[in-house]
Amino acid sequence: MLRKYLGDKYRFLQAAIDGMADPIIVVGTDFRVNLMNRAARDYSRCGDRPIDDLPRCHQLIFGLAETCDHVGRPCPLLMVRAQGAQVRVEHEYPAGDGLVRTFEISASPLLSEEGELLGMVESMRDVTERKEAAELLRSDQERLEERVRRRTAELVQAKEQAELLYRVSPSAIFTVDQKGRVTSWNDKAREITGYREREMLGQSCHLVMAGEDASTACCQFVSAADGRVQGQERLIRTKAGEHRVARFNSAALRDDRGEIIGCIGSFEDITEQKRIEEVMRTERDKFRGMLAALGQGMHILNRNFEIEYQNEVLRTQFGDKLGEKCYRVYKGREVPCEVCRMHAAIESGAIQRTEELMANGRFYEQSYAPFMDVDGQTKALILLRDITEEKALQAETMRAGQLASIGELAAGVAHEINNPINGIINYAQVLLDESTQIHLDLTGEHKVLLEVLQRIIKEGERIAGIVKNLLAFARQRDKGVEEVAVAAVIDDALALIRHQMLKDGISIVFNPPGKLPSALANIAAGQCLTAPHPELPAELPPVLVNPQQLQQVFLNLFSNARYALNQRYKSKAPGKKVEILTAVVTIGDQPYLRTTIKDYGTGIPPEIVGHIFDPFFSSKKPGDGTGLGLSISHSLVRDMGGRLHVESEPGRFTAMMVDLPLKRRNPEPQRQRP
User: How many other CB atoms are there within 10 angstroms of residue 465's CB atom?
Assistant: First the structure.
């Protein structure tokens, strides 16, 4: 019926719909296909089969044996018949590639002139990609909505938390606009100042400011380039009129364009903290003053042997050693000490005390006290007191006592030796006198006897002189100074050690030729005494000193020279000698008598030459020296108004120079012109 109705329009309609891209079919009320375009033939794979040979629409399009409504699918023809209007339905169709394609079917009723339904015109459009895009868009929209919802919830929660934090913050927090008017005021600000939020809103923030800058807005920095203030201390005034010290921190508030619209500030009341700091500073200064007055140095050490603190006393004595290892500073070591007092104090919880010689050549009394520091670490506080002079004084006192004992012993020995020696000398002199009174020609035997008597007298007198010098040195009488000849003091010192030096093969040379300084031309006026040794200059100006103390100085220098020569030479050698040089030199405008004792032994390394006069410092092997000889000698020469200094080259020589001041000649009065 539909095809008859179409009649001559069939070819025209066929041509018209063939040009359309979407599949189009015309279906009669009996579900038979009466017309279809090229796209529909391609989709249904029916090729060029005649219309009359084509199956019904549900067979052609979907391969169904029954109409769509019998398999649970909407039937466009039935829907058009029921509604009498255009309908749209979607059908899923399995494609050849194994995927399911979705088609949108648009069906419009085809009516006769009388309004009778003849069938429908149905177009199909593949909307798979559109459906997928729509589904993806819907899914994205749902995810976006979920994210927005979740973010909104987070922001709300953050806002609530911020507001809660703002209210309960341990710091006072407030905000102001550009004119410094308060826009918010938290509970801590109310607690500190006494002003409630409603009292401060709209008020200038300088209402709570005090002091000279009270009229300045508390957020005056808002115009600054960085818009930030950290740790500014200012006075604030509470509602009750009390002044408090507060520490302010502030930052600019900006809008979304970056423009400053105000600021947010925080402050904390540090009045009590400042008071405590002042008390602690006062107590600390008292403690430092007491330590300085007592000469006590203080270090704080951690378990890693690092110096974390030092007071001014130790900074002066050791230099700035913060961060350095204690064993390097104290002992000059590269590894910790075998016995560590610091760790012993920390482990035992008890104070450790000791006395030790430090790397700087000074002797220290040390106390190690454990304590718990503010960082929770157990550390040690070390008190160091320089007792070098005390130790030297103790040693000197002990030595004085020993010398006193030696003096008493020497006095007894001198009496015991002097009596028989004097008897020997006297008897020998009597025999010699009687022999010389006999004017007879002496035989060879008598001549030998005469020479023996003379040698007995000479050696006896030498023994008596040695005993006398030993007694004089051992007494170390604390008598006043007197004018003495340095050559005589040198002779007395050599009398006590010459025999040992000669036994070791050491030569003693006085004023070697060519070694006299040119400063001899500067000899000052004074009484000239004849030196005991012809090798020394015949005329040397006297010096005003304690002779026993000067003898002690020279004896120590000779002893050190002997030790250095024996270290370098194990037997007699041409270079194993001690030179004694004397000359007058001028230092500044003051004349001095310089005595140089020079040995050609091992010399002194440059790294220790600056410490040789330090008490208890010794370069000798353990047991060979106490480290007090040069220190005491240096002190004695200094007390005489002179100086003891050294020149040395390792492996070549050491020259110890004793400079003693000479009295000036009184200048002649100038004659007045007539």
Answer: 13
Q: CB pairs under 8 A, 24+ apart, for 359-364?
A: 359/329, 359/330, 359/331, 359/332, 360/317, 360/318, 360/614, 361/611, 361/614, 361/615, 361/616, 361/617, 362/317, 362/386, 362/388, 362/614, 362/615, 363/387, 363/388, 363/391, 363/615, 363/616
CATH for 169-269 (3.90.180.10, 3.30.450.20, 3.40.640.10, 3.40.50.1240): 3.30.450.20
Residues 531, 536, 539, 543, CA torsion sign = negative
Looking at residue 205, the DSSP 8-state letter turns out to be G
29 or 611: which carries more pLDDT confidence? 29
- State which H helix or E strand residue 566 sits in: helix 547-568
Please write the tens of the pLDDT for every residue from 132-188: 888 888 888 888 888 888 888 887 777 777 777 777 778 888 988 888 889 999 888
How many Å apart are CA 595 and CA 490, to the nearest integer? 10
| Conformational region of residue 428, where left means phi above 0, alpha means psi within -120 to 50, and beta covers everything else | alpha
CATH number of 2-126: 3.30.450.20
Q: Would you say domain 392-471 falls under CATH 1.10.10?
A: no
Alpha carbon distance 450, 637 (integer Å) = 47
Q: pTM for the full model? A: 0.40
Helix-helix angle 547-568:444-475, to 10 degrees: 110
Instruction: Give, in words, the CATH class of 276-386.
Output: alpha beta
| Summary mean pLDDT of the chain | 79
pLDDT surpasses 70 at 667: no
Q: What CATH code would you report for 483-661?
A: 3.30.565.10
H or E element: which one contains 199? helix 197-200
Residue 276 to residue 266: CA distance in whole angstroms: 22
Local structure of 78: helix, strand or coil? helix
